[in-house]
Amino acid sequence: MHSLLSDIENAVRAAASYLIEVAASKEEARAWIKPDGSLLLSLDLACDKIIVDKLLGVLPLVSEERGATHDLISSDEDYLVIDPIDGTSACKRFLRTLGGQVGFGPLVGLISRRRVEMAVFYQVPHRTLFTAIRGQGVRAVTLPDPALAAPRFQTRPRLKGSSASMLRESAMLYFMGQGREGPLVEALKLSGAVENAYRFGGFANDCIRLAQGFEDVQFQLSVKPWDFAATLFPHETGFTTLMDPLNRRIPYDEWDIAEENPVLVAPPTLISDLIAAIDKAR
Fold first, then answer.
1. Which CATH number goes with the domain that contains 229?
2. For all residues of the chain together, what is the average pLDDT?
């Protein structure tokens, strides 16, 4: 496991180094719109190559930007899933912003028996490496230069997640996707069920913000497999994650990763009230 963790972190750090170098050079990234309407940058393709080159031969690879690899998602084989830049739109708009709240960066996850076992994300604006290992928690380390090796996992500060005890005082993170998030989140906010609802950057950034205790709830009905690896961050800090929250409400550890992964994440203290509020708002 240590060798695999080192391989994954090295690949993520290499891609992050490239993004930081591009920002310093003031090079303009080329942009395209993919058939599904999502944004693709030349930086996505460059980071994808960096990560794939680093991880080739370690395990089979599934990359967002390599459609031919996507068939592996539904298999029981162990594989690595790659999002070369989680938060591409945030990257395009805020690449040169150091600090602030907007988050993006490379994300790689380990999938074993269709469950997420490890996730590594480098949050570029804050220059921080986040790593989650199932059963071992989430740890973060600030690396102003991601080209430098990180300290051993067990020596890094451990994240503790949210301490929220009242739903009406909670903050919800969500993405206006193809599902019914928008109307439901609006209804929850207008009714006072939650205190606020917003989003910073990509899905992985949302998940690490939950793990850091900055917000309390995450709601998204169309999480892609390469983004889904980030759900391990709140899971390993004690959050309850319900899959397919509007219908079957399957526990996180019983869900098989799929092409679309609808999620609802909240502290155990809030989940019952949150489900009741969602049912009332539907």
1. 3.40.190.80
2. 92
| H helical segments located in the chain | 2-25, 42-55, 88-94, 181-191, 203-212, 225-228, 232-235, 271-281
Query: Which residues lie below 8 Å from residue 153, measured CB to CB, with a gap of 6+?
Result: 5, 131, 133, 136, 139
How sure is the predictor about 100, in pLDDT bands with cuts at 50, 70 and 90?
low
Question: In the structure encoding, which two tokens stand for residue 188, read together?
Answer: 């929850």
Q: Please calculate the CA angle 211-137-276 and round it to the nearest 5 degrees.
A: 50
CA 171 to each of CA 89, 145, 214, 241, 261: distance values in angstroms, whole numbers, following the listed order: 22, 32, 8, 16, 22
Do 52 and 99 share a domain, yes or no? yes
d(CA 176, CA 159): 27
Give yes or no for residue 227 having a pLDDT over 70. Answer: yes
Q: What is the mean pLDDT of residues 168-175?
A: 94
**pTM of the predicted model, to two decimals?**
0.95
Beta strand pairing call for 196-198 and 171-174: parallel
Residue of 259, 266, 261, 254 whose CA lies nearest to 115: 254
pLDDT of amino acid 175 = 87
Query: Residue 104 belongs to what domain range?
Result: 2-155
Query: Of 125, 155, 185, which residue is a domain's last?
Result: 155
